[in-house]
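Case 224 in the screening queue. Each case pairs one protein sequence with one candidate compound; here the compound is iron/sulfur cluster. For every case the pipeline is the same: read the inputs, emit a complex structure as tokens, and attach any notable structural observations.

Predict complex for case 224.
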Amino acid sequence: MSRVAFSDLRSAAYCPRKCYYDRRRDERDPPATVEHIRSLAFRYEALLEADANALAGEPIKTDPDSFRRALEHTRSKLERADRWDPICNPAAESVLATGRDVRGIVHKVLSDPLEPTLVSTGKPPETGVWESQSVHAVAAAKAIAWEHETPVEGVWLEYPSYGVVRRLEMTTRRKARYRRVLRTVRELDGPPARIQNDSKCEACEYAGECGVRTRTLRSLLGLG
Ligand code: SF4
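Case 224 output:
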């Protein structure tokens, strides 16, 4: 059975129909802005030394002072966990990880203990991580664990344009959700039903193609 791409799992966790549209799209390389934001995750120490003018020229999403405070908080938190140095100087970078069921790019691999990290270009939620990222994170952990024949208990999610880094435990609930989404992707055969979730559809790049009538459109039409 062919391996499922991390990106398909992530989009199917958001909405199976979105995954269907993603798969039909030819060009799936990330835009240059994505790489620019990701590069922040490999320069944390230099960013902590940078002045406000230099930070203002970086692809950060908060003002320079807020960014520096958030990154200092992240450094303190990770130093207490002995993970600041590994996050700044990972054992491996941009690794194509191939597991039994899934494959994709892991942005950093940390050692002692073995843990993958994924770099998000978006905004972190108030707490934890977004559900689609949780599924992606479990996939990355499983792929790395399979390659190294070593159990992986945690995964890191980095939000470098906000100076935030968070760790996820591989809980039973997360692993069960991952398995459900993996099954959904494997069974994808034709466009799945639309989801009933206005906030997701409003943020979805396929809203027009998909034909959903979101809350915003309904209120514009005086229907909602
Ligand atoms: S618009 Fe809504 S239903 Fe359609 S693909 Fe996007 S999230 Fe899914």
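Case 224 observations:
- Residues 15, 17-18, 21, 194-195, 200-201, 204, 206-207, 210, 212 surround iron/sulfur cluster (CB under 6 Å).
- The mean pLDDT is 93.
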